[in-house]
Design brief:
This protein is of the alpha+beta class. The chain is built from three helices and four strands. The strands form two sheets. The chain has a two-stranded antiparallel sheet. Strands 3-4 form a two-stranded antiparallel ribbon. The chain is elongated.
Length: 145
Amino acid sequence: MSLFGSISVSASGMEAQRIRAELIAENMANADTTRTPNGGPYRRKDAVFTTAPVQNSFAGTLAEFNAGGTQGVTVSSVTVDQSDPERRYLPGHPDADADGYVAFPKINPAEEMVDLMGASRGYEANVAAISTVKDMIGRSLELFK
């Protein structure tokens, strides 16, 4: 794999972690949303990662394909939690059912924060990898002076 291919792999990882962080932020923002346009409480969302070929020039792609190809990461889908919502007894709430219970999303803020820290660390790791490759390219160019 070329140095520029390494940058493409890290860039795909950064994009996937960004999408994951956005979903986590959406989950946190809607942790108490009891009514959505679809009806019922908000449902927690999560990103599913999978491998994907990285975007290179045609010549680079052809050469890497013959050598086995370079794989990056992408978000293949976004899953929506289908488990039963958490029910709380709040008889005065406008979304309470006949028994006085309100359906709330099953979102644990502590878990979401841990997931957000993981996404942030994954993003930072890819930034560090790109920075290292950039330094390697710079040092290689200095050798040709």
